[in-house]
Automatic annotation (TrEMBL), chain A:
Protein known as: V-type proton ATPase subunit D
Lineage: Eukaryota, Fungi, Dikarya, Ascomycota, Pezizomycotina
Pfam family of the protein (one): ATP-synt_D
Protein keywords: Hydrogen ion transport, Ion transport, Membrane, Transport, Vacuole
Compositional bias per record (Low complexity), positions renumbered to this chain: 235-256
Species, as recorded: Penicillium malachiteum
From TrEMBL, chain B:
Keywords on record: Hydrogen ion transport, Ion transport, Transport
Domain of life where this protein originates: Eukaryota
GO-annotated cellular components: proton-transporting V-type ATPase, V0 domain
Source organism (scientific name): Penicillium malachiteum
A Pfam family of this chain: vATP-synt_AC39
Name assigned to this protein: V-type proton ATPase subunit
Length: 284, 361
């Protein structure tokens, strides 16, 4: 997995480690949010599917009744009224209004049908015979169209939701399978690099302190040798100034102390880093 | 004595029509038709009476195609009768076509009003309502031109004259125009059968009865259908033919009626219409306005059709009259409607209402 996902091209620094950690956290929050959104949408989607099924079956029945009422009209009128109806219809009696519905951030268009009762353009069609059948047929067809409008709004919602659910799921999967592992990889990488650096640093410090110890030892030896020499010189020239001897001795001890002090403040830091490393090792 | 010279000129036509009448579908045929499972079966059952006309239909034709072919047969038979007739019989047959002409002209007027290309409307015109100057109507591009120069030349000109001017054509609803024309036509036809000396006797008797019934039926239907529309009572009254059993008292009451009860009251003077209204239970004011939902599944319209068919059937008991042509045409039309209904029921799988046709033989 980690090999396939790779990691982000960052410098393994402490700052980018912090950045990556916050990114990981963000990705996890986003993932859970998107997952919830996708679930909400899917729930809605299922409901719409169920309603589409109902509406389609209803449409089948209603259309059948409507077609039959048209047959009744042609029986009663005994001719074709299509042209007259077409020509006399001027204003729409049956109208559709479009609305928006917000389902977890997705705008679904909703069609709402309503009739304008005042408009009845072909009320006089079939005045001589069959007029009542024609009006009845019109009512039946109005109901059929109502069902169609309902179905249309459901179908549109269905398509849009389908698309949105796909996008959301893609995002969820991308976060789950790409972004989170990659961020984790990056964090792991940064940590290992930092460990490496720390180890190097520790090693270097050890080397430095070793060298310093060596140097100190050499210096001490030198000093000792110098003292020896001085002692010998003193012994040789005991009658020369004794005051000089005291100053030289204090100088040497002071220098040794100073080197020890200089080495000491550096030592706690590597220990600190070590502690942190151990913690990290426990994590990964 | 009235039949003495009838056969000299019109005997052949009458004989032919009686022959045609025998090919009308009977109750037996209808019960066979209702048993059909597909339109192809229907086609097969119709074979004996409609053979050649249905032969060219593709398998499983649409109901409208089927009805179209049946109408073609009616038209060709009628044209043959027209070609064979002379004198007042020919005139009588011409009168029969005027009703279809009114429909065609109304169609073309609608087209002209909405500035459509009326040429393509010619195909939609009923072939029985075809007359030579019908295509000329398409030349007119506006309604004034149509009225002044074209409609005058049509056989229907007398019906326009006096009751409609070109402004009316523009302003009135086409249905009102159509019904005005039809009213004038019915009155003219009524006058014609009652005044023509050749028609003394049986023609006058049966045709008067039929036309009176037709007039009353139109009045009642117009009244019922105008409830809830912008048609005013004065306008409505102008559409009632001025003859018939309901005229004048019934018509006056009809013109004042405001609901179905009012109509029932208006027609109660005539016993047979009263029985119709009683049969459908007067409950039409409720949910199913005149719909098929009466006592035994019959609507008022169905009862009227039934009555018309029975009158048509009775006409065949008379001899020496061209009225049989009228009766035959009406019966044939009803037959086409019946077959359309049955095949529609079969096509849409709504068998429970399939028996809702009218068969008188």
């Amino acid at each position: 997995m980690s090999g396939a996902v790779g990691r982000e091209p960052v410098f393994p620094t402490r700052q980018s480690l912090g950045l990556m950690k916050s990114k990981l956290k963000g990705a996890e929050t986003g993932h859970s949010l998107l997952k919830r959104k996708s679930e909400a949408l899917t729930k809605r989607f299922r409901e719409i599917t169920r309603r589409i099924d109902e509406a389609k079956q209803k449409m089948g029945r209603v259309m059948q009744i409507a077609a039959f009422s048209l047959a009744e009209v042609s029986y009663a009128v005994g001719g074709d009224i299509g042209y007259q109806v077409q020509e006399s219809a001027k204003q729409a009696r049956f109208r559709v209004r479009a609305k928006h519905e917000n389902v977890s951030g997705v705008f679904l268009p909703q069609f709402e049908s309503y009739t304008k009762d005042g408009i009845n353009d072909f009320a006089l069609t079939g005045l001589g015979k069959g007029g009542q059948q024609i009006q009845r047929c019109r009512e039946t067809y109005a109901r059929a169209v109502e069902t169609l409008v309902e179905l249309a709004s459901l179908q549109t919602a269905f398509l849009i939701l389908d698309e949105v659910i796909k996008v959301v799921n893609r995002r969820v999967n991308a976060i789950e399978h790409v972004i989170i592992p990659r961020t984790e990889n990056t964090i792991k990488y940064i940590n290992s690099e930092l460990d490496e650096l720390d180890r190097e640093e520790f090693y270097r410090l050890k080397k430095v302190s070793n060298k310093k110890q060596r140097d100190n030892a050499a210096a001490d030896a030198e000093i000792l040798a110098a003292r020896q020499k001085k002692k010998e010189a003193e012994l040789q020239a005991q009658k020369s100034t004794p005051a000089q001897e005291a100053t030289g001795a204090t100088d040497a001890t002071e220098a040794a102390e100073a080197t020890e002090e200089a080495a000491e403040p550096e030592e706690p830091e590597p220990v600190d880093v070590l502690g942190e490393q151990e913690d990290n090792d426990v994590i990964f | 004595m009235e039949g003495l010279y009838f056969n000299v000129n019109s005997g052949y036509v009458e004989g032919i029509v009686r022959g045609y009448k025998n090919s009308l579908l009977t109750g037996q045929n209808y019960s066979n038709l209702t048993q059909c499972e597909t339109i192809d079966d229907v086609k097969l059952q119709l074979g004996p009476s409609y053979g050649d006309f249905l032969a060219s239909l593709p398998p499983n034709p649409s109901t409208s195609a089927l009805a179209g072919r049946m109408t073609d047969k009616l038209v060709s038979e009628f044209r043959y009768l027209v070609a064979q007739s002379t004198g007042s019989t020919a005139k009588f047959l011409k009168y029969l076509t005027y009703g279809y002409m009114i429909d065609n002209i109304a169609l073309l007027i609608t087209g002209t009003l909405h500035e459509r290309d009326t040429r393509e409307l010619l195909e939609r015109c009923h072939p029985l309502g075809w007359f030579e100057t019908l295509p000329v109507l398409c030349v007119a591009t506006n309604i004034e031109e149509l009225y002044n120069s074209v409609l005058i030349e049509t056989p229907l000109a007398p019906y326009f004259k006096g009751s409609l001017n070109h402004q009316d054509l523009d302003e009135l609803n086409i249905e009102i125009v159509r019904n005005t024309l039809y009213k004038n036509y019915l009155e003219d036809f009524y006058k014609f059968v009652n005044t023509d000396s050749d028609f003394n006797g049986p023609t006058q008797e049966v045709m008067s009865e039929i036309l009176q019934f037709e007039a009353d039926r139109r009045s009642i239907n117009i009244t019922l259908n105008s409830f809830g529309t912008e048609l005013s009572k004065q306008e409505r009254r102008k559409l009632y033919p001025e003859f018939g059993k309901l005229y004048p008292e019934g018509s006056l009451m009809l013109s004042r009626a405001e609901d179905v009860e009012g109509v029932a009251l208006a027609v109660s003077a005539v016993a047979e219409y009263k029985t119709f209204f009683d049969a459908v239970g007067l409950s039409q004011g409720g949910g199913s306005m005149g719909g098929i939902g009466g006592s035994d599944g019959k609507s008022l319209e169905d009862l009227f059709y039934q009555k018309e068919m029975e009158m048509g059937k009775l006409v065949f008991t008379r001899q020496f009259t061209p009225a049989v042509v009228y009766a035959w045409m009406k019966l044939k039309e009803q037959e086409i409607r019946n077959v359309t209904w049955i095949s529609e029921c079969i096509a849409q799988n709504q068998k429970e209402r399939i028996g809702n046709f009218i068969s008188v033989f």
